[in-house]
């Protein structure tokens, strides 16, 4: 049972929702005024607020900001008559839990309430909130999103504890983890739990930066700095000023860019390419790598002094296969999200599928799981996802004989010996299977560094990503 507040200047909507949700066992308050709604939040405790985007006195996003100040643990969902993705983006960026589009569908409202009641809320641990809600100082904040949720197992609890410990500081952080394990989400959580949360969070895939353009992208450039620089450009570090910058696959940065990065870290100043003046900036740097940076230092690929600058705090993100019972928790989360996306109502997974998920190695981790569940749901007509809807290569993954598991420590990665499948239908299937085998082998050999994999296979990154998606790797 949830305690719900409905804020809508349409009396019929208020009455309809109150009657319907009351019959479902929920406690419901309604108001036609945004200002009155804010006063109700001050005097009462609500689990969820359903608020119209356009009100006569105050707009929904403004109410959202007030609610976050008064009662951070209360979730707010926007009701809008404008089926516009820009509305969704705006309210979600400002912290809304979700949004629904008129005309309201009863099952959609019930699903939203169920997710709101079962999704942990980000509660910043501040003196004000500790006093207001009498929280224990040992409690840790949580942040769930459509892309990532925190599990309940020991590995997940340990990870969350480390994140909440380092988040309030200005420490630089190195995040290690396999591809698809959620490193960017961890970095974003650190930012959202810090005092910089209202400033920009800027993620950069260093593996996608070419040697020639990396400097311009990171530091910016002045007009005429080089051929083609027809206008001045702000660099990503300038954009992130006051906030957090996340450098993913940092080991891919060239040596000269590493020198510039070291100067920036030491002096907290940058100079645009072609510029003559330095600009002071304040940016927290979080980096991620799926290869051990100490090994990169020993191989001469990464500057030792830069490594020690970044190595103030290290977080190891466990692979999905190491999450135990949380594997099915993640699966159910992605199932719920896919149900909404595909407008389906699949209840769960068959016992056979659940057992398969628990045994499967998940080399692509959470990203792979999300894609597999979305595809499987598309092929499901009944109440449960059956084994027939799971991709062939996942069901028969045991036909690949791997010598050991992919290691979280890149220096310990093993080499796979891929056996041919016994039953291949035709030449197209044989070719597709061989291509999938080659990509999997290259991923393991290069510690899931897609830039290196693409180079080894003689294809560009975009083609590699398309083939990974095609083969559900």
UniProtKB/TrEMBL annotation:
Record SMART domains: AAA (SM00382), REC (SM00448)
CDD domains per the UniProt record, alphabetical: AAA, REC
Positions carrying 4-aspartylphosphate: 52
Domain Response regulatory, first and last residues per copy: 3-117
Gene3D superfamilies reported for this sequence: 1.10.8.60, 3.40.50.2300, Homeodomain-like, P-loop containing nucleotide triphosphate hydrolases
Keywords annotated in UniProt: ATP-binding, Nucleotide-binding, Phosphoprotein, Transcription, Transcription regulation
Name of a matching Pfam family: Response_reg
Domain Sigma-54 factor interaction: 149-378
Protein name, as recorded: Sigma-54 dependent transcriptional regulator
């Amino acid at each position: 049972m949830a305690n719900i507040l409905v804020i809508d200047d349409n009396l019929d909507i208020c009455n309809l929702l109150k009657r319907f949700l009351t019959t479902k066992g929920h406690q419901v308050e309604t108001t036609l005024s945004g200002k009155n709604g804010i006063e109700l939040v001050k005097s009462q405790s609500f689990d969820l607020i359903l608020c119209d985007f356009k009100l006569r006195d105050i707009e929904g996003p403004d109410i959202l900001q007030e609610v976050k100040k008064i009662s951070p643990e209360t979730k707010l969902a926007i009701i809008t008559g404008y089926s516009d993705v820009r509305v969704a983006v705006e309210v979600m960026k400002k912290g809304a839990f979700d949004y629904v589009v008129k005309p309201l569908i009863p099952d959609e409202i019930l699903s939203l309430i169920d997710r709101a009641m079962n999704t942990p809320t980000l509660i910043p641990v501040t003196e004000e909130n500790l006093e207001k809600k009498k929280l224990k100082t040992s409690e840790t904040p949580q942040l769930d999103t459509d892309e990532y949720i925190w599990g309940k197992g020991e590995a997940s609890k340990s990870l969350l504890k480390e994140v909440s410990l380092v988040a309030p500081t200005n420490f630089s952080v190195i995040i290690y983890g396999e591809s698809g394990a959620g490193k960017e989400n961890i970095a974003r959580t650190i930012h959202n739990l810090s005092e910089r949360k209202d400033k920009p969070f800027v993620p950069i895939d260093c593996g996608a930066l070419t040697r020639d353009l990396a400097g311009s992208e990171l530091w910016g450039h002045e007009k005429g700095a080089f051929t083609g620089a027809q206008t001045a450009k702000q660099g990503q570090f300038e954009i992130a000023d006051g906030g957090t910058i996340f450098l993913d696959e940092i080991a891919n940065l060239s040596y000269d860019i590493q020198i510039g990065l070291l100067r920036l870290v030491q002096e907290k100043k940058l100079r645009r390419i072609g510029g003559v003046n330095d600009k002071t900036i304040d940016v927290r740097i979080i980096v991620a790598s799926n290869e051990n940076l100490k090994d990169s230092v020993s191989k001469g690929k990464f500057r030792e002094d830069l490594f020690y600058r970044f190595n103030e705090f290290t977080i190891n993100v466990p692979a999905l296969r190491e999450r135990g019972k949380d594997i099915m928790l993640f699966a159910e989360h992605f199932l719920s999200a896919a149900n909404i996306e595909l407008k389906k109502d699949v209840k769960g997974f068959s016992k056979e599928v659940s057992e398969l998920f628990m045994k499967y190695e998940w080399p692509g981790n959470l990203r792979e799981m999300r894609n597999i569940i979305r595809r499987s749901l598309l092929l499901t007509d009944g109440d449960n996802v059956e084994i027939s809807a799971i991709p062939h290569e996942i069901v028969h993954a045991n036909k690949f004989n791997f010598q050991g598991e992919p290691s979280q420590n890149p220096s310990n990665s093993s080499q796979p010996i891929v056996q041919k499948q016994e039953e291949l239908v035709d030449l197209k299937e044989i070719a597709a299977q061989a291509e999938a085998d080659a990509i999997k082998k290259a991923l393991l050999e290069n510690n899931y560094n897609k830039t290196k994999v693409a180079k080894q296979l003689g294809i560009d990154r975009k083609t590699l990503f398309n083939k990974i998606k095609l083969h559900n790797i």
